[in-house]
Amino acid sequence: MKASIVVLPGDGIGPEVASAGVAVLRQVAQRFGHEFAFTEHAIGGDAIDRFGDPLPPETREALLAADAVLLGAVGGPKWSDPNASIRPEQGLLAMRKLLGVFANVRPLKLHPRTAALSPLKAERTKGVDLVFIRELTGGIYFGAKTRSDTDATDECRYSVEEIERVLRHAFDLARSRRRKVTSVDKANVLETSRLWRAVATRVAADYPDVELEHQLVDSMAMHLLTRPADYDVIVTENMFGDILTDEASVLAGSLGLSPSASIGGPGAGVYEPIHGSAPDIAGQSLANPLGTILSAAMLLRHSLGLAQEAAVVEAAVDQVLEHANLTRDLGGSATTHAVTRAVLDAFTAK
Amino acid sequence: MKASIVVLPGDGIGPEVASAGVAVLRQVAQRFGHEFAFTEHAIGGDAIDRFGDPLPPETREALLAADAVLLGAVGGPKWSDPNASIRPEQGLLAMRKLLGVFANVRPLKLHPRTAALSPLKAERTKGVDLVFIRELTGGIYFGAKTRSDTDATDECRYSVEEIERVLRHAFDLARSRRRKVTSVDKANVLETSRLWRAVATRVAADYPDVELEHQLVDSMAMHLLTRPADYDVIVTENMFGDILTDEASVLAGSLGLSPSASIGGPGAGVYEPIHGSAPDIAGQSLANPLGTILSAAMLLRHSLGLAQEAAVVEAAVDQVLEHANLTRDLGGSATTHAVTRAVLDAFTAK
Ligand SMILES: CC(C)[C@H](C(=O)O)[C@@H](O)C(=O)O
Ligand SMILES: CC(C)[C@H](C(=O)O)[C@@H](O)C(=O)O
After folding, report:
1. What phi and psi, each to the nearest 5 degrees, are found at residue A228?
2. From the UniProt record, which GO molecular function terms apply (chains A, B) (predicted)?
3. Residue B110 pLDDT
4. Considering only Cβ atoms within 10 Å of each terminal Cβ, which end of chain B, N or C, has fewer?
């Protein structure tokens, strides 16, 4: 197949991990006879420096024409003044809105070799295999804001339609897994959460084969630590999802390993590792490329419909996790390049 | 001294743990020659059942006249329909607003005997000794709400004054501790958070001897698990505090052990264990009374200025934690009564 893939290297270690992802996708193309065209575009701090705009028009245009997007990371101390009028994160938020990618998908699974690095005791993380679906284009992130000398406000708004589509996404996903959806809200306090819960209950009626459970966000923050293995698909609104997915990501033992997909829009999905731009180690070939490579696998599966190719990439990563020297964050001493090379080698060996 | 203490037993295990707290306070009064007058009043589900109002006028009146308030727990499945027009939590929220208790204080310390119950590995929780200050009377909890057939909204609003007073509280507390304040916000996205950060920075200038660090809420959710021992005083807004304090409370190994104080208003402070109403074990003398007893110690210290008495209660609890049979949640088989009795005995032994 032919596919046009936009690569957004971004800031810090973004360019290094993005190029690891591209290397793997190139190899997939070659091995399976696909034609992937890659074009690089600016986003975030890099785009501010070069174009004075965290999501320049030229990038927007490319995003709208793409079949899929591979993103490195965005942000860094250089642009981190929250009162600055232009900030790297605005590029991320604008991109999510532009592409309408309302479902941020983050699978969480523990690999035996990295489980040892989890801050949680092994008996707690045993059997963890869950997926977060975070609503990504609504809520307080995108609501009206005001600021005066004495006050500030942020509005959280959700429509039935926004809630329903992300819940259907969660229920559909649960059908291909263990058929359990946990919907997280703060329905004892928030009106948007009461609407969320009502919609969840209504949507659940269309999925009699899937169990729906409601959890309050504060309880969920506890249960993620006390019994993470009890969850299958967890779905929640934008801000709660931001906090809970980051909390959960720690359980895996390494942030460097976790991929994400932002999908659901009419066009391209966005695939990126969940780690940040890590400016302290940028440019030194110390970054773990596996989160990006696993994101590339999600890209193959979700945006290009290439499930077999995705599985081959994931198997190669598994093999590397088992046998290869890993990057520093995983207790190894290998460079970004060496780990990427190990994945490519494991891949051709198949 | 004379003090009038309002007791709000509430729901589920609330009455059992509240009466343990009262027993300890009675003993303090006797031992140190104080006169504490206790009056019980209704709140939450119990108040809904008896008066059709989660915070009846009679309770409000008593609260306004009290020197301090000891609360059990509020809520339960019986009243948990989020769409009901009257809910137990409304009693809590109305009480916080009525008393103006804007600072919710939650110390987190690990006791050697309970540390083993933490889901975190011992090397991570070593040396943890932090205090959360959660803003409690502002933010999205109390903002304007709307609901239509197609939409819902919640407004998060903060004034400079609301932010400043809770931050000063945090800085003052830090001065009596390790002189480090971590202020948590989402300043890369929210306008209220940018105001929060600006006020924090300005207030910090009055405390040159205290270090101020800013953290984004999502990063904080991770750092609490990866390096909890690095924190001293953590201060944040209402909703973030709700989520992060519950996440943090798990680290201690038992929810049943953690006290809280809600203070800062012109009148009485409210003291309560952080665990909920646990209706599944209500009425069976299975509840852990230590969280409430430690809350009573905070009451003595913060509302009555009885630091020595507070220290005696805390020492008695320490002794029980070391030597006594504990409740089920701590791996023991003792009843609520027996553990309370053990505290009273340890206390007189001093
Ligand atoms: C950078 C920031 C705006 C962003 C978010 O909060 O959505 C990030 O934390 C994430 O989770 O992708
Ligand atoms: C019951 C609820 C309204 C309350 C809150 O969120 O403030 C509770 O979770 C708490 O933390 O005291």
Report:
1. -60, -25
2. 3-isopropylmalate dehydrogenase activity; magnesium ion binding; NAD binding
3. 86
4. C
The correct CATH number of B119-251 out of 3.40.50.10840, 3.30.700.20, 3.30.300.130, 3.40.718.10 is 3.40.718.10
Q: B231's torsion region: left (phi>0), alpha (psi -120 to 50) or beta?
A: beta
B202 and A CB contact within 8 Å: no
Q: Is B188 on the interface with A (CB under 8 A)?
A: yes
A291-307 residue pLDDT tens = 999 999 999 999 999 99
CATH of span B1-108+255-350: 3.40.718.10
A76 assigned ligand-binding residue:
yes
- The class (CATH top level) of A1-109+257-350 is alpha beta
Residue nearest to atom 11 of ligand 2 (CA): B242
| pLDDT tens figures, B163-187 | 999 999 999 999 999 999 999 999 9
CA of A276 to the centre of ligand 1 (A): 9
Q: What is the mean pLDDT of residues A332-336?
A: 96
- Same CATH topology for A1-109+257-350 and A119-251? yes
3-class SS of residue B76? coil
pLDDT band at A81 (very low <50, low <70, confident <90, very high): confident
The closest residue, in CA terms, to atom 8 on ligand 2 is B242
Contact B302, B263 (CB under 8 A): yes
Domain boundaries, chain A: 1-109+257-350, 119-251
